[in-house]
Amino acid sequence: MIRRITLALAAPVLAVAVATAVSALMLAFTDYSAAEVFKVIFTDGFSRTSLVDTVNRAAPYYIAGVAVAIGFKMNLFNIGVEGQYRLAALFAAAAAAAVKLPAPLHVLFTFLVAMAVGAAWASIPGLLRAYRGVSEVISSIMLNATALGVAAFFLGRWLRAPAEVEQTLGTRRISPSGQLPSLNGVLRAIGIDVPDATRVQSYVILAAVVGVIYYLVIWRSSYGFDLRATGSNAEAATASGVDAKRMVITAMLLSGAAAGLIGLNDIMSPAARYTDVTVVSGLGFTGIAIALLGRNNPVGIAFAALLWAFMDAVQTPLSNAELPKQITAIMQGITVLSVVIAYEVVRRVAARQELAGLRREVTAGGAAPPPADPPPSTGSGPEVAPA
Amino acid sequence: MTSLMNPPETAAGAKPPARFAEIPRWARLVLYLALGVGTMSLTRVLTGAGQLTAENTLRSAVYLALPIALAGLGGLWSERAGVVNIGLEGMMVLGTWFGAYGGIAYGPWQGVLMGVVGGAIGGLLHAIATVSFGVDHIISGVSINLLAVGFCEFLTSVSWDGASARESPSIPSNVTKVDLIPFLKGPLHDLAGQRRFFLSDLANAVLAVTTNVSLLIVVALALFPLTYFVLWKTPFGLRLRSVGEDPDAADSLGVNVYRMKYVAVMVSGALSGLAGVLLVYLFSSKFQSGQTGGRGFIGLAAMIFGNWRPGGLLVGAGLFGFMDSMQSQVTETSHALLVGAALMFVVTGLACAFRKLWVSAAVFFLLAAGAAWWYQVTDELPREIIPYFPHVTTLLVLVFASQRLRMPAADGKVWRRGGR
Q1: In the predicted model, is pLDDT for residue A312 greater than 90?
Q2: CATH architecture of the region A55-323
Q3: Does A139 touch chain B (CB under 8 A)?
Q4: Residue pair B225/B311 in contact by the 8 Å Cβ criterion
Q5: A371 part of contact set with chain B, CB < 8 Å
């Protein structure tokens, strides 16, 4: 058990170390001092303002990671999170701005619309995979781009606020009842001092709830059992009576519903409307990196999201100090690339050790000849987590 | 418009009637190109949208198509050896940065070379991860995309003035532009001016690819026949493709599978790098963060559309590039595309009828009627949607013609010698 945890932790720690070393090396080639950069990262990065920024950024990353991880648990690669959350944010913003409801209902309504739209867009690759055998990777790449077109089309023609209401192209503003409150007051009440200039988004709570639901559904429900079973061995699962098509479609729906929530922080915060600027892009791809880094584990994803967000947040102090802030983007890239390599190596080492153990047992018993070669690693797909 | 156009061309696995199959592949390609030009020409005549096949339109279509086509060619090399390359986009980004850097620091051709090498390094990284370490191809590709963007933004900020720069200065000199067939330029211009059916449009097409073209375009275009020759007519190519079809068999026959995959993925990176270089040298003359704009993915789409073959890929990329060039056209021109689409559907429907595929034929005639009706009742094609035509087309091809597509059998599978 302890060895397994060590093995599991070894990879990300190693990856971060490699990333740090490579970026230090790269800085050595420039006029900037690596020592200075890391000093800023480790001092200013942990200032209150920067930490609040980290937490706020980590929340959508976490949900993005969960959305991707739901697919991974089932050996599905939902690379389409990017398009799903963009469309969901647009339609949720438009719907939220169009209705008048009391505060909690208004917020809930927005969540539901976003989840429905995300799930609907994700159902396309799900259905295509289930009924036409189209690889969900290719179809969702195509749908990512298409989502941009669909969003531009609807926003430009039907959902935009009239020019006399809003100057920039975007939806109407969501009334205060549909906006997420700040958590500053609550935090202050329990004795955590938050600087006035910053704002802890209550969206963080949504991320936590999503994490709990993810855990309960995937690890504590019979549906989740079927899903994981299909993910680790589709043929065996089918033989035991799991409807593979249904699993593919529902997994994509769940993944898309989670993806729908990613963009809500941007539209339900004080900006309170969808424009191409308020809803940042690229979170879908970040979500893939985070799910990989966190090995699809609800807690692991949280750490990964925090790490990723930390590297984002520290760009502000870096650029204040007139240092190249993009160095953290390199660190993120190298971390994820080396972590996937490290996991693969760890997996192979573990398999080899297991085999060696088996061989020893058999030869010690002196009965049967040594077992045949280990089962071939069939392109095991994105599923890298231990069973 | 014609998602399902030219199925035989884009489908090696199809079974056209024997007589048709006897026509050599290149002749069929010519036939389809002629059919394409004819359709566009007829559209121009029917709608009076003269800009549709004007030299400028076609030239910008070629310019827009080539980066897509080269990225697709990169994907083709890699996937023919069994390695899926989602990292094309990132390798293109590397190509744009290194191309711009070399162009500024050393000179135009040195810049091109640097861009190619930059892309190849991205390919090497992908090969190390997928071939040596057995990482899932998609995961490695996504990581490379993330890494390449961060890497190039960092390099931009430390290479040129200011830590927040998101673009490079302009390259001081570009690759030479030449007229390939100067003696024909005059007659072709005259012919184009006469606005004759088919001939004028063909003249415009020839003018677009032969007059005032950057040598870079010539190089890029030459890579397609070259790829076809190397991959399909040499022992090396046979070995490379065998690795993508059945690595175990190839291994047992003495092919060095790992080496083949490494070579293929690095060539793939180099070609994507060149695609990035084209973006710098043909359009912006400088590196800009985000200038690839998903073209690596469109290249992937073109490759699928072209059924993992260079000819089909070129047709796909040409179609996508042409659509892309419609964005900057007046509404009238892009509106005329609907007529073009209707005509293409009719042609494809006739082809289906000829092969006694009555249901498909009926579907295509219905589609044709739909497109014509759309043209009648509207005055424009929604501009926001035009850029996403390649993606929707590819999706439709995957949905309705996936039986005709044949990807390399071992594509995307991690292979370890001895099955370990």
Answers
A1: yes
A2: Orthogonal Bundle (1.10)
A3: yes
A4: no
A5: no
From the list A145, A340, A377, which residue is nearest B140 (CB)? A340
Residue B85 sits in a domain whose CATH number is 1.10.3470
Average pLDDT, rounded, for chain A:
88
Q: Which candidate in B139, B261, B385 is best for mutational testing of the A interface (most A CBs within 10 A)?
A: B139
**pTM for the model:** 0.88
Q: Dump pLDDT digits (tens) for B80-117.
A: 999 999 999 999 999 999 999 999 999 999 999 999 99
Q: State the sign of the Cα–Cα–Cα–Cα dihedral A265, A269, A271, A273.
A: positive
Nearest residue in B to A29, CA atom: B158
The reported pLDDT for the residue numbered A99 is 92
The answer to whether A131 faces chain B, any CB pair under 8 Å, is no
The answer, yes or no, to whether residue B385 has pLDDT greater than 50, is yes
In a domain, B79, yes or no: yes
Interface probe with B: pick from A138, A286, A290, A383, most Cβ of B within 10 Å = A138
Distance in Å, alpha carbon of A149 to nearest chain B alpha carbon? 5
Q: Give the domain range for residue B118.
A: 55-308
**For residue A367, pLDDT beyond 60:** no
Neighboring chain A residues of B148 at a CB cutoff of 8 Å:
333
Query: What would the mean pLDDT of B392-408 be, rounded to a whole number?
Result: 83
Does A26 contact B154 at a Cβ distance shorter than 8 Å? yes
Examine residue B342 and state whether it is found in any structural domain, yes or no: no
- Our count of domains for chain B comes to 1
* Residue A182 pLDDT: 87
CB-based burial, A197-221: b 16+ in 10 Å, e otherwise: ebbbbbbbebbeebbeebeeebeee
Q: Which residues of A101-125 are buried (b: 16+ CB within 10 A; e: fewer)?
A: eeeeebbebbbebbbbbbbbbbbbb
Look at residue A206 and tell me whether its pLDDT is greater than 60: yes
Per residue in A5-29, pLDDT (tens digit) is 777 788 888 898 999 999 999 898 8
| Average pLDDT in chain B | 87
pLDDT at residue B11 in the model? 43
Give CA–CA dist B419/A367, Å, rounded: 26
Q: What confidence tens digit (pLDDT) does each residue in B263-290 have?
A: 999 999 999 999 999 999 999 889 998 8
Contacts of A382 in chain B (CB under 8 A): 136, 138-139
The single-letter code of the amino acid at A67 is A
**Chain B: closest CA distance from residue A30 (Å):** 7
Q: Residues A269, A282, B302, CA angle at the centre, nearest 5°? A: 145
Kindly report the nearest CA distance between residue B133 and chain A, in angstroms. 6
DSSP structure class, residue A162: P
**Å between A242 CA and nearest CA of chain B:** 25
d(CA A144, CA B140): 19
DSSP B388: G
Partner-chain contact B388 A145, CB within 8 Å: yes
